[in-house]
Amino acid sequence: MCSVSAEVWHSYTAGVSLLKSASTVSLMTLASRVTGLARDLIMASMFGANALTDAFNVAFRIPNLFRRLFAEGAFSQAFVPVLATTKTQEGEERTRALIGNVATVLFWVLLLTCVVGVAGAPVLVWLLASGFESGHAQEAAVLMTRWMFPYIGFMSMVALCAGVLNTWKQFAVPAVTPVLLNVCMIGAALLLAPWLDRQGIEPIYAMAAGVVLGGVLQLGVQLPVLKKLGLLPRIGITPSAIKAAWSDGGVRRILSLMLPALLGVGVAQVSLMINTQIASYLTPGSVTWLFYADRLMEFPTALLGVALGVVLTPQLASAKAAGDAQRYSDMLDWGLRLVVLLAVPCAVGLLAFAEPLVATLFHRGALQSSDVSKIALALVGYGAGLVGLVAIKVLAPGYFASQDMRTPVKIAVAVLVLTQIMNAVLVPWIAHAGLALSIGLGALVNAVWLLVGLLRRGAYKPVLGWGKYLLQVAAAAMLLGAFLGWGAHQWDWKALQVHEWQRIGLMTLMLAGSAAIYFGALWASGLKLRRLLRR
């Protein structure tokens, strides 16, 4: 009896710990997304949507592409499971040595990458946006790419630090660091851009300076925390130290795992490159419309998917290393239930309430009413696949924890082909919105495929009660959709631009009412939210 009680208590406290960690990451990510939204609102108001904003977004996308490819993508997917396994099986002393050797290899590879990237900026811009009609826009994109490319170096080291801190369950600092980038870019827009304009220099160039400063600060704030924990890596600078780092068995294991992971993440980035390339041939402003829609879509994706992925990845890897299959499966089940609970209403909101959201947030200054409609169309396309986009962040770590990188890669390649087939059909029909819809539908296919794979291999065994749970969420989501659909057509949200505070007030009431209706319906259906969250 005591043994059973101990197991129940351990399960309860583990659930509370996971929820607390996920909540911490979500809260910090919320701060990041709020400041990111403020940044985008200021940029939309000051610069609008035109060829030069397209140039900045292309230039900013290039270091971000490499960041997602190497830093937050293949490197993190390979590094965190190996680090967690080493910590569990070989102890902290060996883990510290591994961290130092990984940092040494990463530093020298990044230095070479940044040199090549700065020199090859014209080629990178052409590969991403050869459709720029304006020579000035192309020149601006190349110049800003050269200024911002070192950002990849800082952010890759940030990913290393974040992987270490997350493994030691220090989630807050890595989650809040993106706020610094947003603050720097806001400062650049408000202070540096007007000064450049007075000097006869394109104000948009100020944003490149803000990006670089943001990368420096994001790395800077994590180093003291690592030092306090005794985990600050030492980077080898002598040939013998570099050779020893490359010879480390853990480093070689990470590199071997990175190759398939690099292909998997690369597939997603190739898809992004293709979409940007296509958008560069469409109406000027298309790249910017997709960028702002993507930023809004990232709110729920980051708050839910990224937060759960960051928390679950080291925990799933630890469970696998310890041979605890039940804990591994239960954590996946818990994560997927949260995805359904929170991503479904967000998706309904993006589908039924896209234009009011875009109008309230972006419709001011240089951004026109026609831009609002274009951004809203793209947002609906992303919203169609939001549940899949969030679910992937929970399902993919289920494979990474087992150090299985190949299966997600194979699925990603197949989905890339499917996405481009959909682009060929949808883009001629609905232009830039077709690019967003293809990504959304592709994400749904990807998520279902990953889920089926985990079920077939018996790694994930759903806990009883899913049927009833899905019906409860679906009923609440239908009520939510009806309410938001009514609100979207009750007022002319674009015309309310002249009554800014009235529009903000209405939006606040609609969002509060949405939360009350959705969670009230779940409560009325008998769903025990507290029990679910702490399960």
Folded structure, characterized:
- By secondary structure, this protein is mainly α.
- The chain contains 21 helices and no strands.
- The protein has helices at residues 2-47, 51-90, 92-119, 121-129, 135-148, 151-167, 172-176, 178-198, 205-228, 239-247, 249-280, 286-321, 325-352, 354-362, 369-384, 386-400, 406-430, 432-456, 466-490, 500-524, 529-533.
- 85% of the residues lie in helices and 0% in strands.
- The longest helix has 46 residues, at 2-47.
What is the strand and helix layout of this fold?
Layout: H1 2-47, H2 51-90, H3 92-119, H4 121-129, H5 135-148, H6 151-167, H7 172-176, H8 178-198, H9 205-228, H10 239-247, H11 249-280, H12 286-321, H13 325-352, H14 354-362, H15 369-384, H16 386-400, H17 406-430, H18 432-456, H19 466-490, H20 500-524, H21 529-533
Helix pairs in contact: 1-8, 1-12, 2-3, 2-5, 2-6, 2-11, 2-12, 3-6, 3-10, 4-5, 5-9, 6-9, 8-9, 11-17, 12-13, 12-15, 12-16, 13-15, 13-16, 13-19, 14-15, 15-18, 16-18, 17-18, 19-20
Low-confidence stretches: 1-16
β-strand amount: under 5%
Tally the beta strands: 0
- Secondary structure: helix percent: over 70%
Radius of gyration: 23 Å
Structural class: mainly alpha
Report the oligomer: single chain
Shape: globular
SSE string, helices as H and strands as E? HHHHHHHHHHHHHHHHHHHHH
Largest sheet: none
